[in-house]
Amino acid sequence: MTDEQSPHRRRFPAADIARVSVFAALIAVLGMPGALNIFGDAVPITLQTLGVMLAGAILGTWRSALAVVVLLVLVAAGLPLLAGGRGGLGVFTGPSAGFLIGWLPGAAVTGWIVERGGRTPSTVRLVIACLTGGVGVVYLCGIPVQALVTGLSLGKTALLSAAFLPGDLAKAVLASIVARGTQRAYPDAVPAVHSERLRAGGR
């Protein structure tokens, strides 16, 4: 079987590995400004969810999910890649564990919605995708785990998490604008276009 015929090669071309690596690094870099805890919430506000939204909007479903997996594996291995220099297995047992795990389906759902927009996903679709995946899905994963770990009620925990909403709304809009600009400048960056080429055996 030749390289061109190999399904493994078609699924994981070098360009995809590079994109996944870049976005895993981007999410990590967005943690460098640090974290902010407000109103006594044990879960900090960070810029890293912006990277998760960007990954989904630009990479699509499976590549964005893989970028998040790469980051979380490195964090689990002890690298201090989360905001505030956090890392190690302990972060997956703390109050923010559900939010961290939620990045994975959050990025994938964002990418899935963008892919449904075809070759020219609108800014509105991008905003909806980022809000649904990067906010809604992440909160659905994060709030119950935070409530379980802290012993607070779901209602109280949800109320604390409401403090994140203004910032997350701003991140969703910013991610959508950046993604739309990137896709206009580089049409091949549209997830649906990449998926079509991958299915056709291209790069």
UniProtKB/TrEMBL annotation:
Keyword Membrane: yes
Membrane topology: Multi-pass membrane protein
InterPro entries membership: BioY
GO MF, one example: biotin transmembrane transporter activity
Coiled-coil portions: none
TM spans (from-to): 12-32, 38-58, 65-83, 89-114, 126-147, 159-179
Organism listed in the record: Microbispora rosea
Keyword annotations of the record: Cell membrane, Membrane, Transmembrane, Transmembrane helix, Transport
Compartments it resides in: Cell membrane
Chief location bin: membrane
Domain of life: Bacteria
Family of this protein: Belongs to the BioY family.
GO cellular component: plasma membrane
Protein name listed in UniProt: Biotin transporter
